[in-house]
């Protein structure tokens, strides 16, 4: 049994609640402390989850912390992750990992110099639904994947997030904020991307917040909020990705992949579970039975009903991979390649040119039923 690695968190905003709530599901990690530039926020989270509140500097120096989770805003992901590595600790970042390939390569160099690991969200591709599709592809049920479509479209974060400003600044927008779930899942299913092309626009330059407590305030939009992109994968597949925060309603499936032998309809890769539907050549579409995968089991109430939520799975896998001396699935290489794809789309949208990828990566190891069970803590 590998010893538990001590985990600290920098950034005590909305997403930190999910990490603290679900960490006890997994073995190999123990949440011990949290920090934030707003000490009151750190103290509130620490009290809520019975942790130790630290200053950022104090957490970086803490002797009982092996991994620090970077939950700061995207604009400072690079800076904070660099501080964590310089402090001699492994880092696991929220998405997007960084905002440029150069930043990612700089962090990779630092980590390799000191024998440290870098991991990054999203880990939703480890969910039961997406790993079922991975199994279908790996066992040849669909034949070679030749093309596909993805759509993630809504009318923006200002209608529910208490502080939505950063979503509309450079470093965010729908392709960098929501795109990681879709692109990371595509990479683990199909493989790395060769080149991209895209169109991008800012249809509305000012947004009105309708969520509390700032309802009625105006925020300026400084990054594209509608991006229609196309990815050519190294295996030859061509997949369309449409991301937008300028759409009130649509009828598109979140993700469809078209293979030589059939089509698979995937649930939203922002979530771990959901229904998987498939066709066998020209036969009618059928819904597959639920796979007995632990990360597909509904465990949290959501506005749409009970849903499967196993965020922190990627962090736990990284901790156990460190102990076991194996690659972790939510790897730096995977996250950086996704950043390469997303920033490539933004560059293509600005220039009107195809953009070749600067990076590549291996598909992460599949997480089957047995492997997923091995990540979970034993019930008392």
From TrEMBL:
Gene3D superfamilies linked: Dihydrodipicolinate Reductase, domain 2, NAD(P)-binding Rossmann-like Domain
Source superkingdom: Bacteria
Keywords noted in UniProt: Oxidoreductase
Domain Gfo/Idh/MocA-like oxidoreductase N-terminal: 6-118
Pfam family, one: GFO_IDH_MocA
InterPro entries, alphabetized: Gfo/Idh/MocA-like_OxRdtase_N, Gfo/Idh/MocA_oxidrdct_glycsds, GFO_IDH_MocA-like_dom, NAD(P)-bd_dom_sf
Domain GFO/IDH/MocA-like oxidoreductase: 130-264
Keyword match Oxidoreductase: yes
Protein name (record): Dehydrogenase
Organism: Mesorhizobium robiniae
């Amino acid at each position: 049994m590998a010893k538990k690695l001590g985990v600290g968190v920098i950034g005590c905003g909305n997403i930190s609640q999910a990490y603290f709530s679900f960490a006890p599901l997994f073995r190999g990690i123990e949440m011990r402390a949290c920090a934030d530039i707003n000490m009151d926020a750190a103290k509130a989270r620490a009290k809520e989850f019975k942790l130790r509140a630290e200053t950022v500097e104090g957490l970086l120096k803490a002797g009982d912390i092996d991994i620090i989770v970077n939950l700061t805003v995207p604009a400072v992901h690079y800076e904070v992750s660099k501080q964590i590595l310089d402090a001699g600790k492994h880092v696991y970042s929220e998405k997007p990992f960084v905002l440029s390939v150069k930043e990612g390569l700089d962090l990779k160099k630092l980590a390799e110099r000191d024998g440290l690991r870098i991991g990054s969200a999203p880990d939703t591709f480890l969910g039961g639904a997406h790993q079922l599709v991975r199994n279908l592809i790996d066992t040849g049920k669909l034949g070679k994947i030749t093309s596909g479509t993805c759509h993630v479209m809504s009318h923006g974060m200002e209608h529910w997030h208490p502080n939505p400003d950063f979503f509309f600044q450079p470093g965010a927008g729908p392709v960098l904020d929501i795109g990681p779930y879709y692109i990371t899942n595509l990479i683990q299913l199909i493989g790395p991307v060769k080149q991209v092309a895209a169109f991008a626009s800012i249809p509305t330059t000012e947004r009105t917040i309708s969520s509390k407590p700032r309802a009625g305030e105006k925020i300026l939009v400084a990054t594209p909020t509608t991006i229609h992109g196309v990815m050519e994968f190294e295996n030859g597949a061509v997949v369309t990705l449409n991301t937008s925060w300028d759409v009130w309603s649509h009828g598109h499936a979140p993700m469809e992949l078209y293979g030589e032998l059939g089509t698979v309809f995937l649930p939203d890769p922002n979530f771990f579970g959901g229904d998987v539907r498939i066709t066998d050549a020209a036969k009618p579409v059928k819904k597959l039975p639920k796979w007995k995968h632990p990360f597909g089991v509904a465990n949290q109430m959501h506005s749409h009903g009970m849903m499967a939520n196993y965020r922190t799975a990627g962090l736990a896998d990284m901790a156990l991979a460190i102990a076991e001396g194996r690659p972790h699935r939510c790897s730096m290489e995977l996250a950086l390649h996704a950043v390469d794809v997303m920033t490539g789309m933004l560059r293509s949208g600005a220039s009107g040119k195809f953009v070749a990828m600067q990076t590549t990566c291996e598909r992460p190891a599949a997480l089957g039923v047995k492997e997923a069970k091995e990540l979970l803590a034993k019930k008392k």
